[in-house]
What does this fold into?
Amino acid sequence: MSTRSQGTTLFSAILILVATTVVVQLWLLSFSMEALLRHQFKPLTPAAIASTVLFCVNGGLLRYVFRFDRDVQRNTEG
Amino acid sequence: MNSGIEKSIEIAGCASCASCVKTPQSLQDFPIEWEGDHYVSRREMVKFLTLGSFLLVLANWATAFARSMIRKDSSTVLRLGPASDLAQNGALLFRYPTPQDPCIAVRTQEGALVAYSQVCTHLSCAVVYDKSADQLVCPCHRGVFNVDRGAPIAGPPTRPLARVKIEQRGDHIFATGLEV
It folds into this structure.
């Protein structure tokens, strides 16, 4: 399998993963809002931390995409 | 920029020539070329979603810090009046802790003294005491709250009424704080 077609499959998988984590973050936000309106403050900080962790995962995947593109470009030029 | 399209439209009419490529009807109807017409690559989508993810993190932390802005308790003590004003199975309206916060004190059928914010947790209409059913009722959308705990028992409200701490000292009733 060529690097290009590998990249296509890989980016599709990354896209699905990132979309899933964003949906989970949306759920966390709606859960936090509901808890806030019920005056239940305990789960707010853990929800924010979980959301941050998911964002870090997304950021890591985006960084991987950039690095993959850079490596492919370097190999093509070289 | 759209010379290629015009050319392709010109040759689209040529049915006899085998080398001519038939232009799709959509391009004949809308012969405007826009490079990468609304095309979003996977990489751009990942970038966009990661940006959205960052905004969601900000919103989540804003929610976490918003709790410090919510009034947890009020130490204001307000005298509501003589206890005789609040007969059994009766209600008394007052404003606490500020003149903008309507509240209702109720002496239940069992004789217990309870007080709640009068603001319905559905759409902020004022709840009233229904003596016959011993319940707090919102007349706007028929929301019903339990008088003992302020919990919603019927209608659209899903959250309980904010409870006001109330005390009877001698012959007088005092509001001493808000329970959240």
Residues 3-37 of chain A form the longest helix (35 residues).
